[in-house]
């Protein structure tokens, strides 16, 4: 009996005690909260350095930039230019995604397509999109077509490479299962290769988006008129010429905020409902 009582006491004492998490622990477990803390710390460091440097022309404070950002939103100029850039970006991005999908599908379907993709990527992937600006101006003139040309180049090759690499890594078991079901050609690509290679494809989509976004801003800094009005790059360039450094920082901040929004809202939502739901990523 003594042994049984002692064993029961040991077992009871060994049971983990569940304690509710404090509000701080619950908040800290959220990625958005942790990233918000990082952003606040960066803003504090920015403000502290700007006050210490005391040179608003060269490095405006966070508060001055926030005021310039608020004024740009209030007048509508910053939002209009941001929307102009986003429209052009989405158009070029979609065209690049479609072309990359076609090339990767051809590479997965035939040896000739594989050789075509390998040759084209070896030729054009190392070529910076910004280096094509002179040709774009010469061929398409000043405006949206030139921007689209460099955007498609920025998106096409990294996405095609990632997609092709993802297709090549698909397990042979899945390939045989698809063939046993009679899948051939584009049906084989759509129902077997794309789902199995989606983590690599999603990585390519992210890389292509980042390349396209920074290429667009750089292109607009050079000849940034699109659809009759300038985009965010042109907004930054104009304010630089007027020595409105706080507005320049506000434009750069808008570029960053749009990038964060796309990453946090679009790509994370896709990850949540695809590769994480399928157990392909943690």
**Mean pLDDT over the residues:** 82
Q: Which secondary-structure class do the elements indicate?
A: mainly alpha
For the biggest β-sheet, the strand order reads 1-2
Fourth-level CATH superfamily of the largest domain: MetI-like
> How many structural domains?
2
Number of strands: 2
CATH topology of the largest domain: MetI-like fold
Spatial separation of the terminal alpha carbons:
49 Å
- Please mark out the parts with pLDDT under 50 across 5 or more consecutive residues, or reply none: none
CATH class of the largest domain: Mainly Alpha
Helix percentage range: over 70%
Which strand-content bin applies to the residues?
under 5%
- How would you sum up the global shape? flat
Sheet bearing the most strands, described?
A: 2 strands, antiparallel
What is the H-and-E element order? HHHHHHHHHHHEEHH
Individual helix count: 13
CATH architectural designation of the largest domain? Orthogonal Bundle
């Amino acid at each position: 009996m003594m042994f049984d009582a002692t064993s029961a006491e040991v077992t009871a004492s060994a049971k983990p005690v569940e304690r509710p998490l404090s509000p701080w622990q619950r908040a800290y477990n959220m990625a958005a909260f942790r990233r918000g803390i990082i952003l606040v710390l960066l803003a504090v460091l920015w403000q502290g350095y700007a006050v210490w440097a005391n040179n608003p022309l060269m490095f405006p404070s966070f508060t001055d930039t926030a005021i310039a950002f608020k004024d740009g939103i209030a007048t509508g100029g910053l939002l209009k230019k941001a929307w102009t850039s986003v429209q052009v970006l989405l158009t070029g991005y979609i065209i690049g995604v479609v072309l990359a999908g076609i090339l990767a599908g051809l590479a997965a379907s035939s040896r000739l397509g594989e050789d075509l993709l390998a040759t084209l990527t070896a030729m054009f992937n190392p070529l910076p999109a910004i280096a094509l600006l002179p040709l774009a101006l010469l061929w398409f003139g000043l405006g949206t077509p030139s921007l689209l040309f460099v955007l498609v180049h920025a998106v096409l090759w990294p996405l095609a490479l990632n997609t092709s690499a993802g297709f090549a890594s698909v397990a042979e078991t899945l390939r045989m299962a698809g063939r046993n079901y009679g899948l051939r050609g584009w049906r084989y690509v759509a129902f077997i290769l794309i789902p199995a290679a989606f983590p690599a494809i999603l990585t390519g989509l992210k890389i292509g988006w980042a390349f396209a976004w920074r290429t667009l801003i750089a292109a607009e800094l050079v000849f940034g008129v699109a659809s009759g009005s300038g985009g965010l790059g042109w907004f930054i360039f104009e304010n630089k010429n007027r020595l409105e450094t706080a507005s320049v920082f506000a434009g750069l901040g808008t570029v960053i905020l749009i990038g964060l929004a796309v990453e946090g809202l679009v790509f994370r939502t896709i990850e949540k409902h695809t590769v994480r739901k399928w157990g392909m990523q943690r």
